[in-house]
Amino acid sequence: MAVAPDVIVDVSGSGRERGRMHGEILRDRIADALERWDAEVGERMGIPAAEHVAGLLGATRFLPAIEAATPDLLEEVHGIAEGASVSHERILAYNLMDEEWWYSQARGHRHACSLVAVAGGEGRGALLAQNMDLPEVMDGGQAILRSTAADGSRTVVLTAAGMIGLTGCNSDGLGVCVNTLSMLHNSAEGLPVAFVLRGLLERRSLAAAETFLHTVPHASGQHYAVGCGEDVAGFECSAGSVVASDGGTTRFWHTNHPLASRDIDPADDEPGGTADSQRRLARLAETAPGVESAADCEELLADKEAPLCVAPEAEHHWLTFGSIAIELGSPPAIRIAPGPPDRTPWIDAAA
What is residue 313's predicted lDDT score, i.e. its pLDDT? Predict the structure, then answer.
């Protein structure tokens, strides 16, 4: 798989300035991504995408939580819209990926993401790695966004053109990986996942990240694996609770069903997770104990047997959109495959 020539995007300045640069540089790819998304939404929902966006934004109240917790990121979304010459509402809705899934009751949208976290020691930083599995319609929008904020702090994220981030790491060596937990309670007034992710990456210690997760209201069920220095921790977050999921261990793995949280929506038809999620977790339990390096992570994430590395199927249009493997040293080493890791070159992505 060829890597797009503009896959690495460097932006800097205030939130608005970073967003404008993102939107301008990736304008054509954002337009292509939104055109594909519009078509998929229209087919899935049976209404025009613009009507669906209006319904999503009208039925939810995410803006107060975003403005309270991550105002600079809301400015970044405004900037992306301006730079790409797209309405703010459309870009905002595109960044509400997990929230759009539960709003539209897209129950098939849960077969996504496998991660592993390993604490460091003996001079080695912790390891965080994951496959980011997304709908096939998003393929082609992969980007590595490297941001320098006005205060000089730097963040590197795997993202899709037009989105503020999916998974990543900051220059202080704090990394975050994620898993959707769609069976947990959601909230139409919480902080959406993309903003939680980037908000975490504004923190400079594991303790500060944990405090942030316990402080903000959560819009969607999500597992956040956070690492900094030699330490790692996992948290299952939902509208009703934030629960540690790592069991106090120095090595853990996660897929798409809760291991600790009991804040489960009783209306969910698969509260224990899909057979696929269980199968991927079992595969990680077999193989992740042997992971000791980023190279081991890259080999693990390319595994198509479980499958950890997902390929589209006739009745299941998902794929591994990209992968990340982070060594949380000082400075951190960040490697990203902007596509399925079994056939996409890994890039040294640290700024």
Answer: 81
